[in-house]
Write a structure and sequence with these properties.
alpha+beta, Aspartate Aminotransferase, domain 1, 3 domains, 35% strand
Length: 370
């Protein structure tokens, strides 16, 4: 009976996905399960085998201390006051992300970044480095040869060329997972879908989509970002249940009218729901041009004067005619773009126009400056 029920459920889910609207998206693309997430790991280690591009130990004593501590672990005693010149060693910070449900023995990618004054990590190898979580426990061990995409070259006269960043390297599959992150998957009778973008309409539609397939009352929207779903407690049945739900199609709610302005790059993004009331706009620009010229004043051949240089400045002010254009009632995004393109407004001019429209109450949208 259980197998027949699951088979019937998958068939219903397939047909539900087939008749979904064109704008529909899968639940797994717009939401994530509560508690199912990656965790950050960080560690401190040494990179050896560099070609003279390591740390300058006179300015980074912690590199020398770390090297001495490593030698002590191998039974090597360093005489007190010994002077090290570790040009082939660099202290690095190692960080990685351990994915959800990662098990001991699996491999994860790591990144090593110089934390001192090493010029390059190219050709170096990371020695065994424990990676810890926020709780201080070791969850992975990293080691291996670094792959560095950057390159740097320096001449004796001080000139140098640097391509990308040579002080950062990666090791694909460079760490073994030693400890699994505790997860409460299956411990509760409900699962929670958290929307990537909070929206009340999307939250309700997601719950309705699940209830249409599984029955009324199975899913309940809690707020604009969360939907709780009753789920089986058996781990195997819960995995099958989630695999079915995350492939359901949901038509997300359309966002509010916004205009995003990046003042640093001049990028402007106008949403589809932006509307403008009937209004006339004119925008002109004032150009001031200053030309510096030099005139040489030279006396006659029989005169007793001196040759002098006389500056000659020319200031010219030009005001371009600002063409006026008007918006009809309720113009769409295409109408706004077409009107601005006809005027030939630059990004800076368009920013000023949009802000003026907002101040005049003619622009029905939120302006967000990033």
């Amino acid at each position: 009976m259980r197998i027949s029920y699951l088979l019937l459920t998958f068939i219903l889910g397939f047909f539900t996905c087939s008749v979904a609207s064109v704008n529909a998206e899968r639940i797994k693309d717009i939401a994530s399960l509560k508690g199912v997430r990656a965790n950050q790991l960080v560690g401190y280690g040494l990179v050896v085998g560099l070609d003279g591009s390591g740390d300058q130990t006179a300015q980074t004593p912690f590199t020398t201390q770390s090297f001495q501590a490593m030698l002590k672990q191998f039974g090597i005693t360093v005489p007190p006051g010994a002077n090290f010149q570790l040009k082939n060693v660099a202290a690095v910070a190692v960080h990685a992300e351990i994915p959800a449900f990662a098990k001991p023995g699996q491999k994860i990618d790591i990144t090593a970044s110089s934390i001192a004054n090493a010029k390059s990590l190219r050709g170096g190898a990371l020695l065994m480095t424990p990676l810890k979580g926020v709780d201080g426990q070791v969850y992975a061990m990293a080691q291996g040869n670094l792959i560095v995409g950057g390159f740097g070259a320096e001449g004796r006269d001080g000139s140098k060329v640097t391509v990308n960043i040579p002080s950062v390297g990666r090791i694909p599959n460079g760490a073994f997972v030693e400890r699994a992150v505790a997860a409460n998957f299956g411990a509760e009778s409900e699962i929670v879908f958290n929307l990537h973008t909070a929206d009340f309409t999307t939250s309700k539609r997601l719950a309705d989509s699940i209830n249409t397939l599984m029955g009324p009352g199975v899913a309940k929207p809690m707020d604009a970002a969360s939907v709780t779903v009753l789920a089986p407690k058996n781990p195997a049945h819960r995995v099958e249940f989630i695999a079915l739900l995350e492939n359901l199609q949901v038509d997300p709610g359309e966002g509010s009218a916004k205009i995003i302005i990046n003042s640093r790059t001049g990028t402007i993004v106008v949403g589809d729901h932006v509307r403008v009331k009937p209004v006339a706009v004119t925008h002109g620009s004032l150009t001031v041009t200053i030309k510096e010229d030099v005139t040489i004043s030279q006396p006659n051949a029989l005169g007793e004067g001196e040759t002098v240089v006389v500056p000659n400045s020319q200031v010219e002010v030009t005001e371009e005619s600002g063409p006026m254009f008007n918006f009809s009632p309720g113009p769409t995004l295409n109408d706004i773009v077409r009107a601005v393109n006809e005027v030939g407004a630059a990004p800076g001019d368009l920013m000023a126009i949009l802000e003026a429209l907002k101040q005049a109450g003619a622009l029905k949208a939120e302006i967000v400056v990033i």
